[in-house]
Amino acid sequence: MKSVVLLSGGLDSAVCLGYAVRDGQVVLALTFDYGQLAARREIEAAAALAAHYGVTHQVVALPFLSAITTTGLVTGEDIPEPEVARLDDQEEATARAARVWVPNRNGIFLNIAAAFAEHLGAAAVVAGFNREEAAAFPDNSAAFVAAATEALRYSTRGRVRVVSYTQQLTKVEIVELGRRLGVPLELVWSCYRGGETMCGRCESCQRFLRAVAAAKV
User: Fold this and answer.
1) Annotation-wise, does 23 bind a ligand?
2) Is 164 annotated as a binding residue?
3) How confident is the model over 183-193, as pLDDT tens digits?
4) Contacts of 148 (CB under 8 A, 6+ apart)
5) Could you say which residues bind Zn(2+) here (predicted)?
6) Mean pLDDT value of segment 58-76
7) pLDDT score of 205
8) d(CA 47, CA 203)
9) What one-character-per-residue DSSP string does 139-190 give?
10) What is the CATH number of the domain that holds 126?
11) Any binding-site annotation on 190?
């Protein structure tokens, strides 16, 4: 199956890239720069992952997104730094999600990727969603993937669907899948911030570090 992969450089998208390469032909990996703090590090990680697999990589700039959001991912303010023990508290997770929400981000990403996919003759857009974050982020859910695919039946004349190989997995299970696939996890950037090293404090770091520790990686 030919596919276009949404590649943020994070754990989920990296493992999805590895799976998509094994599953068929990845014709393009797309990374989006919407003014997020971690843009440079995400682009570097995505480029390294794409190069590892010999996949063409392209960065798409979306400056309008940073202009219409006050998310901590862009401003650097109020970035969630939960205790590991609180990561799975549903009420708290939902409240934290609101602090890093970007208006229609995944919807925009999927539709742009679908346009590339239709142009390149690819049958799927591959996105790195997961079961943990779907509990707080509706645009990570299986229902969202199904709805997006249904919409693309019309906007791409039924030629493109959305696929997420990690949709039903926890972060630990994604790390384990990545290990089985031989994904170079040392290239991943899973931090909301864009420093020289991952901060280890933000929620994205906490989920990643918890997962690799539990998987004994």
Assistant:
1) no
2) no
3) 999 999 999 99
4) 107, 110, 162
5) 191, 199, 202, 205
6) 95
7) 97
8) 24
9) GGSHHHHHHHHHHHHHHTTT--EEE-TTTT--HHHHHHHHHHHT--GGG---
10) 3.40.50.620
11) no
Is residue 50 marked as binding? no
Q: How many CB atoms lie within 10 A of CB 178?
A: 26
Q: Write out the two tokens for 147.
A: 């709805």
CB atoms inside a 10 Å sphere around CB 63:
9
For residue 36, the model assigns a pLDDT of 98
Q: Does the annotation flag 205 for ligand binding?
A: yes
Q: Are 33 and 57 in contact (CB under 8 A)?
A: no
In a 10 Å sphere around its CB, with 0-12 CB exposed, 13-18 middle and 19+ buried, how is residue 67 labelled? exposed
- As to burial, measured by CB atoms within 10 angstroms (0-12 exposed, 13-18 middle, 19+ buried), residue 4 is buried
Per-residue pLDDT, 84: 83
Total tally of structural domains belonging to the chain: 1
Structural domain containing residue 203 = 2-214
Q: Is the dihedral of CA 147, 109, 124, 48 positive or negative?
A: negative
The answer on whether 136 is annotated among ligand-binding residues is no
Joined tokens for residue 123: 């049958």
Question: Taking the CA of residue 24 as centre, how many other CA atoms within 13 Å lie in the half-sphere pointing to its CB?
Answer: 17
